[in-house]
C-alpha cells in the first residue's frame, strides 16, 4: 500500500508558523495537487513528506506505516524540483543511475534499469550525452527518469514544469501523467497554476497562508467553493450583498431564485462567465458597458448596473461597445453567509 496520509502537520520557521494543522490523504496511485499562491507553504509540505525537513508536530503515514521519523533515503518518496539540477559533469546514464549507485546496486542491474528508464522517457540512445547537450524538455525527462529509477512508492513534483515554455509545459505534463498512470505511482504535484491543478489532479488541496482551505475534486473546488477565499483563488468573481427570504435572493441590483433557508445578511457570488449579455429590452435587467477588452476567444467586460460594476466574460461572437445599453441575465449564483 502506498497511500500517503498527513495528520496534523505543523511547522514554524523562526517562530513564524508556516504550516498549520495540515491533514490530507493521497490514495494509492492517485494524483493530488497542492495548489496555492507563492509562500503559502506548498514546498515546505512536500519537503516534510520527503523527509528533507522535519515537522514540529504531526505524523505522516505511507500505507499503514508511520514514516514520520524515517530517514529520507528509506522513505520511498522522491522529489523532482523545478530546477531539475542534473549533475553537469555526469552523462545521462550516470545521472539516471545516480540514486541506484548510491544504494550500491550492482552495475549490471543499474544498466538494465537505466535502459528501462531511457525507454520510458523516450530518450533511448542518449546514454553518453551530457545535460548541456539536451533541450530543457529533454533535461526535465532525464530528471524524471532519475527520480523514477529507484522505483519510489511516492512521486513528489515541485512545480516541475514551470521552467518550460507553454507548449512544452503542456507536453511534459501530459507525458509525466501518462508515466504516472502507467506505473500507478502515488503522486503529489505542487503548483500555483490553477489550470494545471484542475487538469492534472484526482483531488486538489487549496493552500492559503499555511492552511488547507478546501480539499476535493477539481470540479468540487471550481463549482462549489466553500469559502470566498477559495472562490477568488480560481479567478475574479462578482459579489452582491443582500438577503435570502422565501427562496429568493433579494438585493438592490436584482432578485434571483435560490433554494435555501432565509439569511439576513447574504452575499451572492456570480462568476463572470455566468452573466450573459443581450440587446437592450431582452431581460429587463439593463446596464451600460463601462469597459471592454477583446481577447480573441473571449471579451472581458465591465457593465454598470444600478451603480454596481459587474465583471462579465463573454464568449459570444456579438461584441458590445463601451457606452452601449445592454441587458444581462444571471445564470447561476452561490450564496455565502455574511456581508
Ligand atoms: P513558492 O510557490 O513561492 O515556492 P511555497 O508555497 O512553496 O511558495 P514555501 O516555500 O513552503 O512556500 O514557504 C512557506 C513559508 O515558509 C514562506 O513564508 C517562506 O519564506 C518560509 N520558509 C520556507 N523555508 C524556510 C526556511 N528554511 N527558513 C525560514 N523560512 C522559510
TrEMBL record:
SUPFAM superfamilies: MOP-like, P-loop containing nucleoside triphosphate hydrolases. Signal peptide: none annotated. Residues 4-234 form the ABC transporter domain. GO terms for molecular function: ATP binding. The keyword ATP-binding applies. Keywords: ATP-binding, Nucleotide-binding, Transport. Gene3D superfamilies: P-loop containing nucleotide triphosphate hydrolases. This is ABC transporter ATP-binding protein. It comes from Tissierella carlieri.
Amino acid at each position: 500500500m502506498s497511500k500517503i496520509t498527513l495528520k496534523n502537520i505543523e511547522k514554524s520557521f523562526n517562530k513564524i508558523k508556516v504550516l498549520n494543522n495540515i491533514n490530507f490523504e493521497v490514495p494509492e496511485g492517485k494524483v493530488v495537487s497542492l495548489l496555492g499562491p507563492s509562500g503559502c507553504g506548498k514546498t515546505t509540505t512536500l519537503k516534510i513528506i520527503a523527509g528533507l525537513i522535519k515537522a514540529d508536530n504531526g505524523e505522516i503515514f505511507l500505507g499503514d506505516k508511520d514514516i514520520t521519523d524515517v530517514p529520507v533515503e528509506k522513505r520511498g518518496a522522491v522529489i523532482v524540483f523545478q530546477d531539475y539540477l542534473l549533475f553537469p559533469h555526469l552523462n545521462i546514464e550516470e545521472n539516471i543511475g545516480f540514486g541506484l549507485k548510491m544504494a550500491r546496486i550492482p552495475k549490471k542491474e543499474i544498466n538494465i534499469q537505466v535502459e528501462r528508464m531511457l525507454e520510458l522517457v523516450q530518450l533511448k540512445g542518449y546514454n553518453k550525452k551530457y545535460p548541456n547537450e539536451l533541450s530543457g524538455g529533454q533535461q526535465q525527462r532525464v530528471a524524471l527518469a532519475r527520480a523514477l529509477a529507484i522505483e519510489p512508492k511516492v512521486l513528489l513534483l515541485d512545480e516541475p514544469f514551470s521552467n518550460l515554455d507553454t507548449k512544452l509545459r503542456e507536453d511534459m505534463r501530459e507525458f509525466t501523467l501518462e508515466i504516472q498512470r502507467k506505473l500507478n505511482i502515488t503522486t503529489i504535484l505542487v503548483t500555483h497554476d490553477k489550470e494545471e491543478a484542475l487538469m492534472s489532479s484526482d483531488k486538489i488541496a487549496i493552500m492559503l497562508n499555511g492552511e488547507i482551505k478546501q480539499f476535493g475534486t477539481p470540479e468540487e473546488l471550481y463549482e462549489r467553493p466553500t469559502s470566498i477565499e477559495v472562490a477568488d483563488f480560481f479567478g475574479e468573481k462578482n459579489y452582491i450583498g443582500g438577503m435570502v427570504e422565501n427562496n429568493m435572493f433579494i438585493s438592490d441590483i436584482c432578485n434571483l431564485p435560490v433554494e435555501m433557508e432565509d439569511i439576513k445578511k447574504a452575499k451572492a457570488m456570480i462568476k463572470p462567465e455566468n452573466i450573459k449579455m443581450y440587446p437592450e429590452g431582452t431581460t429587463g435587467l439593463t446596464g451600460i458597458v463601462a469597459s471592454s477588452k477583446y481577447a480573441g476567444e473571449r471579451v472581458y467586460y465591465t457593465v454598470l448596473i444600478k451603480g454596481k460594476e459587474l465583471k462579465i466574460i463573454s464568449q459570444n461572437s456579438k461584441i458590445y461597445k463601451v457606452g452601449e445599453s445592454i441587458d444581462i441575465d444571471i445564470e447561476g449564483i452561490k450564496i455565502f453567509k455574511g456581508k
